[in-house]
Amino acid sequence: MQGVVGQKPWVKDPLVVRKRWSEDEYNLIDHGEGNPLCFAIMWDDGLVVPHPPIIRGLELTKKALLAAGHKGGWYTFPCHLLRSFVVPVTDWKPPKHGEIYDSIVSSHVPSCCKS
């Protein structure tokens, strides 16, 4: 990432966010120096399931996070409060995603087609 950011891509593409490299940010100085962090994995959104290679990549990522010392579990309070606690690597399910999808789709169905 340092190499990419060092090329200053915003000079060539004005849509790229101007973000200079920061060693402190990279080392997560403001976030307990990266230990512990909070992770949630969304396996699917309840409507679309990723292809097997994507699922395999997510599984490998979860295993790597657990191997790095991040414990599994679920907490009901925000992740930023977990500085001194065991950090969850949890499976995340988006709330009401199906309802939102249904409302969007039904709002675009012509009135002649609604029953």
Q: What is the CA-atom radius of gyration, in angstroms?
A: 20 Å
Mean pLDDT, all residues: 75
Q: Which structural class is indicated by helix and strand composition?
A: mainly alpha
Q: In the residues, how many domains can be counted? A: 2
What is the chain-wise order of helices and strands?
A: HHEHEH
Strand order of the largest sheet: 1-2
Helical residue percent? Answer: 25-40%
Query: How far from one another are the termini?
Result: 53 Å
Number of helices: 4
Secondary structure: number of strands:
2
In short:
The chain is mainly α.
Describe the structure.
The chain has 115 residues and is mostly helical. The protein folds into two domains: 1-34, no CATH class; 39-115, no CATH class. It has helices at 2-6, 23-26, 52-67, 97-107, and strands at 39-41, 89-91. The protein has a two-stranded parallel ribbon with strand order 1-2. Strand 1, helix 3 (52-67) and strand 2 form a beta-alpha-beta unit. The longest helix has 16 residues, at 52-67. The N and C termini lie far apart (53 Å). The model is unreliable at 73-87 (pLDDT under 50).
Write the layout of secondary structure elements.
Blueprint: H1 2-6, H2 23-26, E1 39-41, H3 52-67, E2 89-91, H4 97-107
Parallel strand pairs: 1-2
